[in-house]
């Protein structure tokens, strides 16, 4: 039997896709899934009913294409974000991955570059690659933080057309001070760089952590992207969105596929936003479990990156691959993000978190 990759490579596939394997964390069926930063709390019963009712209404009109402008949804998203934003400032797509893809299609492409700061969200280079955009990397300090001056000078020196700032950063969990965003924005002036602050995990930040939404007024090259996949517990519905100057949304209209947001998706998201308080009620509980993980791991003597998100990156492991496998054998799936000595775990429910902490402690106790 020939290797599927070998067979694929016999096709006249684009050169920059040759040899690549598709993105994807392992989807393994075990009792406790703490590997892809999902919200492990289900959608509350009454919100579920509201979504089902809204979807039923949408089904009645499925013979027609959906509202191409998803106006009602954009209005709800603007209201949710606040900060004086209106529907004109909002764009949405099937997950923030697609939102980011739209940005690359409109502002990247052959002969242009995007700059990211690894370790960061692993889709940035893949989205750059699939849109023919060059991908450049800048540096972080040893605690994975970005220093405003260094980062800004890397942005200026590379002349990148698109800059990815992830805050809180996946996989490290740390949020960025706004000073970094504003200095990066100013440093991108010469190249007219589009600066994207990916705030997929913003709702899990410690109170008082500011959002880059505050910086939007007067900055027409700044984009803040968000998702309903995490705090809203709607990863399966696929709805990501961004806030930016209205002309950015106009640029993205040029590259989206017509009717890209189905009537079902729009109805689901609007119903969820109508009940946002109930859906977000679990955020505080998730933050408590996140903080439990931080103190539990610290108590085990493992170095932990401070986290403003629903996951925690921890180090101090001689053989992270073996720890990952042992946890899996114990029914707990977490993520090996490829950083030497480190693993990443998503905050679960109280019980899931307890099982993870106990399993890990029993694994590492003999070695500390
Ligand atoms: N940005 C970051 C930093 C993420 O971690 C993720 C998902 N893991 C996404 C964007 C994409 O999420 P979605 O497409 O579900 O909105």
From TrEMBL:
<protein>
    <recommendedName>
        <fullName>Histidinol-phosphate aminotransferase</fullName>
        <ecNumber>2.6.1.9</ecNumber>
    </recommendedName>
</protein>
<feature type="domain" description="Aminotransferase class I/classII large">
    <location>
        <begin position="32"/>
        <end position="360"/>
    </location>
</feature>
<dbReference type="InterPro" id="IPR004839">
    <property type="entry name" value="Aminotransferase_I/II_large"/>
</dbReference>
<dbReference type="InterPro" id="IPR015424">
    <property type="entry name" value="PyrdxlP-dep_Trfase"/>
</dbReference>
<comment type="subunit">
    <text>Homodimer.</text>
</comment>
<comment type="similarity">
    <text>Belongs to the class-II pyridoxal-phosphate-dependent aminotransferase family. Histidinol-phosphate aminotransferase subfamily.</text>
</comment>
<keyword id="KW-0028">Amino-acid biosynthesis</keyword>
<feature type="modified residue" description="N6-(pyridoxal phosphate)lysine">
    <location>
        <position position="230"/>
    </location>
</feature>
<dbReference type="InterPro" id="IPR015422">
    <property type="entry name" value="PyrdxlP-dep_Trfase_small"/>
</dbReference>
<keyword id="KW-0032">Aminotransferase</keyword>
<comment type="pathway">
    <text>Amino-acid biosynthesis; L-histidine biosynthesis; L-histidine from 5-phospho-alpha-D-ribose 1-diphosphate: step 7/9.</text>
</comment>
<keyword id="KW-0808">Transferase</keyword>
<dbReference type="InterPro" id="IPR015421">
    <property type="entry name" value="PyrdxlP-dep_Trfase_major"/>
</dbReference>
<keyword id="KW-0663">Pyridoxal phosphate</keyword>
<dbReference type="GO" id="GO:0004400">
    <property type="term" value="F:histidinol-phosphate transaminase activity"/>
</dbReference>
<dbReference type="InterPro" id="IPR001917">
    <property type="entry name" value="Aminotrans_II_pyridoxalP_BS"/>
</dbReference>
<dbReference type="InterPro" id="IPR005861">
    <property type="entry name" value="HisP_aminotrans"/>
</dbReference>
<keyword id="KW-0368">Histidine biosynthesis</keyword>
<dbReference type="Pfam" id="PF00155">
    <property type="entry name" value="Aminotran_1_2"/>
</dbReference>
């Amino acid at each position: 039997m020939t290797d599927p990759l070998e067979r694929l490579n016999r096709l006249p596939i684009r050169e920059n896709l040759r040899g690549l394997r598709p993105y994807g964390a392992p989807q393994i069926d075990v009792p406790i899934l703490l590997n892809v930063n999902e919200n492990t709390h289900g959608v509350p019963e009454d919100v579920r009913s509201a979504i089902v009712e809204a979807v039923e209404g949408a089904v009645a009109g499925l013979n027609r294409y959906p509202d191409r402008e998803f106006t009602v949804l954009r209005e709800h998203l603007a209201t949710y974000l606040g900060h004086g934003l209106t529907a004109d400032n909002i764009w949405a797509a099937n997950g923030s991955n697609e939102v980011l893809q739209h940005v690359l299609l409109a502002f990247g492409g052959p002969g242009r570059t995007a700059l990211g700061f690894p370790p960061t969200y692993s889709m940035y280079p893949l989205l750059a690659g699939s849109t023919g955009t060059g991908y450049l990397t800048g540096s972080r300090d040893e605690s994975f933080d970005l220093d405003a001056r260094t980062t800004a000078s890397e942005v200026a020196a590379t002349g990148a057309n698109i800059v990815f700032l992830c805050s809180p950063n996946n996989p490290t969990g740390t949020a960025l001070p706004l000073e970094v965003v504003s200095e990066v924005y100013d440093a991108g002036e010469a190249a007219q760089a589009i600066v994207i602050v990916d705030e997929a995990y913003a709702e899990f930040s410690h109170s008082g952590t500011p959002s880059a939404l505050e910086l939007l007024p007067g900055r027409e090259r700044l984009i803040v992207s968000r998702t309903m996949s995490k705090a809203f517990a709607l990863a399966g519905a696929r709805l990501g969105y961004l806030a930016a100057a209205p002309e950015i949304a106009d640029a993205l209209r040029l590259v989206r596929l017509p009717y890209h947001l189905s009537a079902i998706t729009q109805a689901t998201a609007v119903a969820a936003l109508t009940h946002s308080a109930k859906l977000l009620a679990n955020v505080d509980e998730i933050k408590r479990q996140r903080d439990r993980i931080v103190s539990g791991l610290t108590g085990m003597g493992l170095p932990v990156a401070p986290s403003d998100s629903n996951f925690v990156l921890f180090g101090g492991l001689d053989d992270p691959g073996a720890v990952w496998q042992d946890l899996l054998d114990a029914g707990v799936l977490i993520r090996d993000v490829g950083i030497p000595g480190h693993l990443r775990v998503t905050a679960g429910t109280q019980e899931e978190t307890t099982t993870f902490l106990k399993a890990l402690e029993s694994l590492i106790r003999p070695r500390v």
